[in-house]
Amino acid sequence: MRLFRIVLSGCLLLLMEQTAFAQYGQIRKWAEEELLSSPALRQAHTGISIYEPATGKYWYSYQDDHYFTPASNTKIFTLYTAMRLLGDSLPALRYLETDSVLYVKGTADPAFLHPDYTVQPAWQLLQQTSKRIMIVPAVSENKRFGYGWAWSDYADYYQPELNEWPMYGNVARIRHHGDMTLIWPRMFNDTAHFTFRRDDKLEELLAERDERSNRFSLTFNGNDKSLQEAEVPFITGHTGDLAYRLQDTLHKPVTVLTDGTTLPPGAFTLLKGIPADSLFLPMMHRSDNFFAEQTLMMCAARLWDTISTARTIDFMEKSYLTNLPDTPKWVDGSGLSRYNLFTPRDFVSVLSDMYKTYPSERLYALFPTGGKGTLKNYYKQQFVHAKTGTLSGCVALSGYLVTKKNKTLVFSVLVNNHNNSATNVRRTVERFLTQVWEKY
Question: Residue 119, Cβ neighbours under 10 Å: how many?
Fold first, then answer.
């Protein structure tokens, strides 16, 4: 009887292995014959990793130990970091009250006076006080742009400057309708900062800014009577410029602490801001670079009262990320930098840990799904919850896939050095993942 059980157990194990081989072999066939050999990917550098957390088995791997520029898939590591370090709310600012002065210090919160958020704890504190407001400059190791960013994108909406205390998302918002043109913040709404002209040959609104000054210009087609809007980053400048912007908005004096007065960091109170997920969701769904960068800065401000993206990354690599399969080169929060290098199995590792640590309902809500966010034109069946990534020559998609048989998979598909359209690459990857969804 014992021998029979041993033989039976061996047969079952062999059958399971054969079934798994057939299953994985089918995926390999799809990948080799349809995905990797497609016109969109044939000459590209591609890495794939598909993993099932329930069994701890990789369903398919192809060059998953190779390094890739992941573009906005970098935000997955940023999200993971923020969920680990920030808690359930953002750090709005640090403050210290005396009999006559309210001392305030920025914590890099990007939600301050951002039009997406009506709840403004920091604004309420500043608005309601009758004491003198004095800004204490934060210790910051960051520069206004990230390491390896394209300098020529300084006036593009997706690359606002980074600083210790953002206001309005650090962008000027321009609205044009009929004969009316306005720019906000209102301090830019004068001829010294803002000019506009008509050009009826233009197909779309053209908003620009001088490279080294907050001088904005707008060119519009006068025959277009629709409401048109544009966002252009402004130069944030130094702490004195911040004080001026605050004073202009609050309509009360705001000064900067410059007399050498020593205020112990431990004396400051951390003011809680908006719920963290209310920032994480747009960061992931619309792939908001500014929110992602400021998020890593907030993590540093909360832990050490020093703003430093590099310090946050170093801390994560020496703590929560020590078990990564490969050592990444991680330099920013958004993925704008081409210096970032990750492997597909690194993404699968972090995504798996997130899946194990946090409720899937929360994760799936934070990641775009079919028909929503950056996936609005893809995966209409909504079987993926994943982050996209796009740079010139780079297309990425990493996240979770729930099959028709309700199996949860963690996956990463990274494509670099393609010379096709990003849409064609995405559609090819979509067809491959749809086959996995339908079959299993």
Answer: 11
